[in-house]
Design goal:
CATH class of the largest domain: Alpha Beta
Helix content: 25-40%
Structural class: alpha/beta
CATH architecture of the largest domain: Alpha-Beta Complex
Strand order of the largest sheet: 1-3-2-8-10-9-14-15-13-11-12
Strand content: 5-15%
Oligomer: single chain
CATH topology of the largest domain: Amidase signature (AS) enzymes
Distance between the termini: 74 Å
Number of strands: 15
Number of domains: 2
Number of helices: 20
Length: 579
Amino acid sequence: MTEPSAADWKALCAARKRHQSDAIPPAWNIQPPPDDHRNVLDVPVASGLLTARELGITDTIDLEIILRNLAAAKWSSVEVTTAFYKRAIIAHQLTNCLTEIFIDRALDRARQVDEYLHLHGKPIGPLHGLPISLKDQFCIKGLETIMGYAGWIGRVAESDSVLVHVLYQAGAVPFVRTNVPQTLQWGETYNHVFGRTTNPYNRYMTSGGSSGGEGALVALRGSPLGVGTDIGGSVRIPSAFCGLYGLRPSYERLPYCNAVNSQEGQESISSVLGPMANTLGALRVFTQAVLAAEPWRHDPLCVRKPWSACEYDLADHGGRGARLCFALMPDNGVVKPHPPLARALATVKAALEAAGHTVIDWENHRHLEIYKNGVSIFNADDGVDYRTECARSGEPLIQTMSPSTDAHEYALDAPMARSILGENIRHLSAYELWQLHKEKRTLRKSHLDHWEATASRTSTGRPVDAIVSPVAPYTAVPHGCNSDDFYTALWNYLDCTALVFPVPSVVCDPALDPRAPPHEFWNAEDAAVHALYDPELFAGLPVGLQLVGRTLEEEGVLAMARVVVDALEARRNARTEGA
């Protein structure tokens, strides 16, 4: 067999990128601002491409209002899908966030939905007529699923993933797919086929990953709701970097069947799918709608657990309106967060206490052991999976997310795993991997016992209700600099439900977030992250945190996040009125 040449894979990628560009109607092209125009959030409105009505539709971030208008035929699915498609195309021209563009197919689906409503006088389901964007892992019959690999170009899906089937059943309109990094195993978004996705708050910064295309698209309101996946933080990191809400459910709560993935067959730390949106309510609407479709009837691994109104009413936490006890994790003992994250945590603490809740400090428990165990499982094949997929086309395995030109001075070529573990990453035998799985179960049991023991410190008679922590030790960072995912991956390893929320009153501000003096660094990664912080460069970036609950506690986490968001809003209003 002849080995493919560099010219072959480069030509393949260039042709596929041209095909993507050709799918954009010429009338929807805009003149993007120059690269030094870093914040592009205002461009969709200023572009002149969207009508006043289309701006009204796409600027409606309350998903329930959109759904009510669709169900009442106040807005048709065709016009809503068209409006979001136009805005998605603008977002793509600004941040390079899309992969699959299939306008005719999406509008045909929207017309079918509108016809159903006209004929039957009722919506198809709870997501009737709603355009939804999907990460480039969810197969749609008849379309390519490339997932960032040149060797996957031309790979057309023969059937829909279960999630797409469920969305059709609920009345939704899948309308675009979004960009990912090669291998998926990066907290940034870049591949040889579609290129690099940037952050709309500052295009010098990454949108995160691996659901970075979704993050950029939803932040620019090019989609009312996006679906990403998360195995180490891939929903939560881009949500935090792009000022969004994002949910990481527990293993197998939502249907993953027939979605493609890297490292398929690795099932000790499962990838999960989760929604990303501009409001917290959208996450609940999506989760409730998917569970209402009984996905366990289509996905053999999906947990048979319907939506629990009882859990959403916080029955396990004293009931709705009860005083809760939250624990703050100011750092994870591996990498210390930048000053804006510390200010956000302090803001949340003050808001919760003002609302009558108790806040205590979380005591870290065996974090480095958990980290080493999880990373060792991920690296058990020593990269064979990635190299095999790259070999299909001959493309090289991407070793760094740093740009080849204009790279930031603190771009890190080595991921955190090698910083912490050194060169002890190697191909493991099946027996060695089984020992890691056994160790993982032991660590999960130990952490559960540690959480339960907090009942002695809470004064509620219950253990800590939820933990609030950073999503990463920083906000969005320059391309090539996001090397740490342990603030999120910790909860993937332990399989705890986690939800990201922005802290609207906290935006990176040089006056409020000056450089912190050097501390006693735990490792080389900690030192590198400290050196990375530049108050002027990070100015204006959103700050997000995550709320962490127990395993399979999606309803409770959504409800407790509402408690936190309401407390933040109440405190913000009180300070505004008192000013």
